[in-house]
Amino acid sequence: MATEFTAFARTNQGTGASRRLRSAAKVPGIVYGGEAKPEMIELDHNPLWHALKKEEFHSSILSMTLGSAKTQVLLRDVQYHPFKQIILHIDFQRVDANKKLHMKVPVHYVNQDISPAVKLSAAVVNHIVNEVEISCLPKDLPRFVEIDMKDMKAGDSIHARDVKLPAGVDLVIHGRNKDIVFATASVVAEEAAPADGAPVAAAEVAASKQKAPAAAAPAKDAKKK
Question: Residue 49: phi, psi to the nearest 5?
Fold first, then answer.
């Protein structure tokens, strides 16, 4: 079920009009794309602020109610105030069911705790990629890409070629490197212990590096009377 929100038609434009909207706890926005002309909209600030904290609002198809019409849209851009908790502007794009989307969706790593890398080797797992760009038709859009780590061993890496995507979904990778690394599992080498197995205190090590003070020179013989 698509996440729903309500927008209202906006007639006044310009900097002054946008400032008055924000003073009234409203957010100016725009909806574009498809065969229809761009529409100026406004939204209630506080419900939108809370909606933007949810992952699915950023990576899934949304159902926008505008007047008596419902339209499927995608969130495309949000502008925030540099230091205040205020949304300055928001952009949505209409969804065409017959055209492929290019979207960034989050990456979810699962079963890390039961992997041999963690259970048997106490490896340190590093998640290198937290979101990925994909291409697909709107009907195939996943809310996230899941990477199952249950078979990962110490020293292993998960590459783009290892990622299993839902049907109809392709990774979009920019640049020459087409096989990016998503995650690694490495074992941190332990410091070597002394031969007898006893730990060496840091103070003792520091003291051993200091040169022993020179022996005091023997006192000269007293002159014979």
Answer: -60, -45
